[in-house]
């Protein structure tokens, strides 16, 4: 390929919004020459590479906007530490069929067992698959909605929690809510019903949600919509955080 042709291709690629092609056209032609590619094979190579670059760029941008606390995957989850948890159930969720069906997933169990890790890992997988995601604790969501309601911007703020394909709601039940606060949660749950997926974590059983939301009737209405299409996984094993803390204490004791 002549230098003039290469420059013309780089200019055109830039105008088309293909900066990666503009930077790598010489590498593509070198690979094509070495493999003695035909025209269609070369075109397939270029388009496949550009699509992969765009997907990776979209994925990274999605993670930046997601507010996820970390980007851990299921490969990093120690299933051996939770022998009562069937890995197949979690890996079935990772196929994202529940997201395709606009259904929900609930992860229940005491603090420290890895509920948030799994929820985040499922969200990362969904982002990789092209779904928009957003992470929030229940307390943060309620606080933001209350502030928006006071400022007359509730409808606009609700969009933050209604637009994503997957909404992750962490730490349901750590703080009891007043009825007005619970009603804001109900609005999010009911408006997302069969329109988008929710992944939630909770340290409370569903029978305790009446106490969490301060009203048995309202809690029942929330659960009715949430659980109609929902995969529920209970994790009742030991705490990872306690395990790590005990190991650190043991090491400190040994050094002393």
UniProtKB/TrEMBL annotation:
AAA+ ATPase domain: residues covered: 101-234
Keywords: ATP-binding, Nucleotide-binding
Taxonomic lineage from the root: Bacteria, Bacillati, Actinomycetota, Actinomycetes, Kitasatosporales
Membership in a protein family: Belongs to the IS21/IS1162 putative ATP-binding protein family.
Alphabetical list of InterPro entries matching this protein: AAA+_ATPase, DNAC/IstB-like, IstB, IstB_ATP-bd, P-loop_NTPase
Gene Ontology biological process terms from the UniProt entry: DNA replication
Protein name: AAA family ATPase
Record keyword Cell membrane present: no
GO molecular function: ATP binding
Residue ranges of coiled coil: none
Superkingdom to which the source organism belongs: Bacteria
Pfam families on file: IstB_IS21
Species of the source: Streptomyces regalis
